[in-house]
Amino acid sequence: MANNIKNGTLFSLFWENSKINKRNILTFAKRLDEDARTAKNVPQIFYPTEDLFLSRPRDDLSRLMCERKSSRSFSDVALSEKQLGSLFYAFAQRSKSTRLIPSAGGKYPIEVYAFLFNVRSKLNKKVVYYNADNHSLSVVAESCDWQKEQEFFGLNLDGVPAVFFVFVAIPERTIDKYGERGGRFILIEVGHYAQNLALRLSLEKLGGVISGALRDDEVKRLLGLQNTNALITLGFACGNIKR
Ligand SMILES: Cc1cc2nc3c(=O)[nH]c(=O)nc-3n(C[C@H](O)[C@H](O)[C@H](O)COP(=O)(O)O)c2cc1C
Fold first, then answer.
1. Which of 31, 67, 210 to probe ligand 1 with, by most ligand atoms within 8 A of CB?
2. Is any ligand 1 atom within 6 A of the Cβ of residue 155?
3. What's the 168 CA to ligand 1 centre distance in angstroms?
4. With helix as H, strand as E and coil as C, how does the chain read?
5. Are 98 and 132 in contact (CB under 8 A)?
6. What pLDDT digit, counting tens, does each position of 88-138 carry?
7. Which of 73, 77, 142, 210 could disulfide-pair with 158, CB 3.0 to 4.6 Å?
8. What is the count of structural domains for the chain?
9. Any idea of the CA torsion for 114, 137, 104, 231, to the nearest 10 degrees?
10. Are the C-beta atoms of 130 and 137 separated by less than 8 Å?
């Protein structure tokens, strides 16, 4: 047990067991259908006290937070390089050792990749890696094709997302320090990445939706990470929305 805790063996096992692949995707989809048919409203916890009513902020941040919502219908208007810069800035480095996003122990286990399906840039149709240190993109694959690859992205969308972000974890960065507990931190940190991106999407009047149903191994292969320990955590389809 002590060894497991040090090396994150149980986290790896959990990860392997929660992967989606072409064999279990139908069972997964059936679960979602069942939930859609039977789900009730999320219950609210009730305390029998005299509640204190709070004022609601009326500031730019609260407006952006209110505008954030999932959009699954994309227009064919491409994203500009300026908009790309704005979205990727969600994950930028602040100083030599910190990013705009918090990270347990400053280990930054999350790396950001993206499929550029529809951008006005020489990088259109390429797969890229984001360099947080100098806010730049490196090409990791010369081509991508939504029509061919969409089944791996786990989303049913109307139209083609201009950009599909993938948050990839390098687990040993965090697990070497925190053991099994580090597994929790990695997943929590992905949420920060998704939220920062969601707020920048609102600011840019763009839309998007998270994908929690990526086909792990296929997406890993598309990113050229098949021979690494990298974990495919979440996807985020983004773009101009159909109005
Ligand atoms: C971890 C996570 C995974 C999600 N996965 C999916 C997904 O696979 N497909 C999808 O259509 N929406 C997905 N969503 C979006 C939720 O369905 C959506 O956030 C929820 O219905 C609330 O709606 P809102 O985002 O418009 O407020 C996911 C959201 C989160 C946080």
1. 210
2. yes
3. 18
4. CHHHHHHCHHHHHHHHHCCCCCCCHHHHHHHHHHHHHHCCCCCCCCCCCCCCCCCCCCCHHHHHHHHCCECCEECCCCEEHHHHHHHHHHHCEEECCEECCCCHHHCCCEEEEEEECCEECCCCCCEEEEECCCCEEEEEECCCCHHHHHHHHCCCCECCCCEEEEEEECCHHHHHHHCHHHHHHHHHHHHHHHHHHHHHHHHCCCEEEEECCCCHHHHHHHCCCCCCCCEEEEEEEEECECC
5. no
6. 999 999 999 999 999 999 999 999 999 999 999 999 999 999 999 999 999
7. 73
8. 1
9. 40
10. yes
34: amino acid identity, one letter: E
What is the pLDDT, as a whole number, of residue 229?
96
| Residue 162 token pair | 């201009």
5 alpha-carbon distance from chain centroid: 27
Q: What is the CATH number of the domain that holds 29?
A: 3.40.109.10
> CA geometry: angle at 102 spanning 9 and 126, to 5°?
80
pTM: 0.96
Structural domain containing residue 91? 2-239
Check if 198 has its Cβ closer than 6 Å to any atom of ligand 1.
no
Tokens 């990749």 locate to: 113
Quick one: tokens of 136? 């730049």
Count of C-beta atoms within a 10 Å radius of residue 109:
25
Measure 97 CA to ligand 1 centroid, in angstroms: 31
